[in-house]
Amino acid sequence: MKITRVEVERFRIPARTPAFAWRAGLPGSEPELEGGLLRIGTDDGVDGIAHTRRGVILEDLVNRRLRDELVGEDPFRREWLWHRVWELDRIEEFPVYVLGLVDIALHDLAGKALGVPVHELLGAFRTEIPAYASTVTFSSTEEYLDVADQCLELGYPAIKLHAWGDARRDAALATALRAHVGDDVDLMYDGSAGFDLPDAVYLGRALAGAGYRWYEEPMREFSVTAYRWLAERVEVPLLVAETSDGAHMNTADFIRSGCAEYVRTSTGFKGGFTGGLRIAHTADSFRLRAEVHGGGLPNIHLCMAIPNTTYYESLVMENPVPKDPIVDAHGLVHAPTEPGVGASTGFV
Ligand SMILES: [Mg+2]
């Protein structure tokens, strides 16, 4: 089988309402976007697709770099083509969200060609996984507690805060949430890189006192040393390397520093399924967990394929809290059954 065409179809992604933020000063919602669907076609008639919210950028990169690299290649040589994308990254410095798109489309293609869902192609580990409710920023402690009640009512066994990015206010919120939900609900906190070391230490000590499962990305992930210093000063387990470039090669340095009990893996920022698996296996070597960042079908497949992960991330972006159609009444996400990734329409 040979790749015969590589195309980008742009599609409209409407503006999200109501608008939301990951923390004060860090908007989450965007105006109307042009998404991009990458389609890799073959002489056998089988094709594979992958989606991004950045259609204009993807189209440019496909036209200038990726099409010429892929056409004529065997789409089953995924490791070789993964390597070639990294070679092109050396000259192009691809955004991290572009690095995995070819790999996702090639896995989709292979799954369709073989008639199996991608998680089976990867080596299935589980058929269901619990989801945590991952909040956006709400206006007050009272609103967060109300949102938490709704999430528990919907079946979620765990809640992760994205809060205001103010160490003292967030520490008080995290403590109030623990008192509100009791000790049996898993709680996590995500800083979206809002802090420097002194504030990250202050907040980390509060999260440890409130028994949080993990403390995610309190600082930008440029300095591994800063994370090692933070880990030396707080008891709460850190979850690191969500946005850093370099897939498993970068994650390995975070692990080597001793700062991590949890690392981030994902199809979105870590080089598709190939990068996501490499990170999970690197973490597993040291008995660490690799938690899958973000939602969407490719990440569900990744959750099903790796042993050392705990939850699927289900975003809660508004109040009243809508039911996530992917999460059942027991808070579980189930393995997709369609061949390939199973995303025939825009799922980004
Ligand atoms: Mg995060």
Question: Could you describe the 3D structure shown?
Answer:
This protein has 348 residues and is α/β, with parallel strands linked by helices. It has two domains: 3-115, Enolase-like, N-terminal domain (Enolase-like, domain 1); 120-334, TIM Barrel, CATH 3.20.20. It is 40% helix and 21% strand. The protein contains twelve helices and 14 strands. The chain has helices at 55-70, 78-92, 96-99, 101-114, 118-122, 141-153, 167-181, 197-209, 224-233, 247-257, 272-285, 297-305; strands at 3-13, 21-23, 26-27, 33-42, 47-52, 128-135, 158-162, 186-190, 214-216, 238-240, 262-265, 289-292, 312-316, 332-334. The strands form three sheets. Strands 6, 7, 8, 9, 10, 11, 12, 13 and 14 form a nine-stranded mixed beta sheet that branches. A three-stranded antiparallel beta sheet has the order 1-4-5. It has a two-stranded antiparallel ribbon with strand order 2-3. Helix 10 (247-257) links the parallel strand 10 (238-240) and strand 11. Helix 1 (55-70) crosses helix 2 (78-92), helix 6 (141-153) runs parallel beside helix 7 and helix 8 (197-209) crosses helix 9. It starts with a strand and ends in a 14-residue tail after the last strand. The model has no long low-confidence stretch (mean pLDDT 97). Magnesium ion binds at residues 190, 216-217, 242, 293. Residues 190, 216-217, 242, 293 line the site of magnesium ion.
